[in-house]
Write a structure and sequence with these properties.
Strand content: 15-25%
Order of helices and strands: EHEHEHEEEHEH
CATH class: Alpha Beta
Mean pLDDT: 89
Radius of gyration: 15 Å
Shape: globular
Largest sheet: 7 strands, parallel
Distance between the termini: 26 Å
Helix content: 25-40%
CATH topology: Alpha/beta knot
Length: 161
């Protein structure tokens, strides 16, 4: 099965959020990638509980490091095209609804505790923002990922009657 998008999780900290995001990928028909090290063992019971029995329905790539992920992304781009890295970031200025998503895009979320380092920010083809009310920092990472995945799928699969 061809997956229209991939959700990449950069060194996730919280197993429940990771399980929730992977479950969302399964339900929406997206692939997923985890860039390690994660802040928990992938066998963690909280991760398994939040992902429920959906985890077996997600094509999941695990990468031992940021460099390994970038090597995979370059190879994917060379073979199949696409693989633009679209980073959800509180430091971005382009809102997620204004970005033009394409099949093959990789939506990336950062660590709950620290986001992503500058090296990852710099490697992104685009950085997008989900605006929140003044004085508030950010949404839960699983909620932000779901919002961006939904908008991306809406754009990619939208057909005019």
């Amino acid at each position: 099965m061809l997956h229209p998008l991939t959700l990449a999780l950069y060194q996730p900290d919280i197993p429940q959020n990771t399980g929730t995001m992977l479950r969302t990928c399964a339900c929406l028909g997206l692939a997923a990638a985890i860039i390690e090290p994660a802040g928990f063992p992938i066998s963690d019971r909280h991760f398994r509980r939040s992902g429920m029995d959906y985890l077996d329905h997600v094509p999941l790539e695990r990468h031992i490091s940021w460099r390994a992920f970038e090597d995979w992304r370059r190879a994917h781009r060379a073979q199949k095209g696409g693989a633009r890295l679209v980073l959800l970031s509180t430091k971005a200025s382009l809102t997620y609804t204004k970005f033009a998503y394409q099949p093959g895009d990789i939506l990336m979320v950062g660590r709950e505790s620290a986001g992503v380092p500058d090296e990852v920010h710099d490697a992104a083809d685009q950085r997008i923002l989900i605006p929140v009310q003044a004085g508030l920092r950010s949404l839960n990472v699983a909620m932000a990922a779901a919002m961006a995945m939904g908008e991306a799928l809406r754009q990619i699969t939208h057909t005019t009657p």
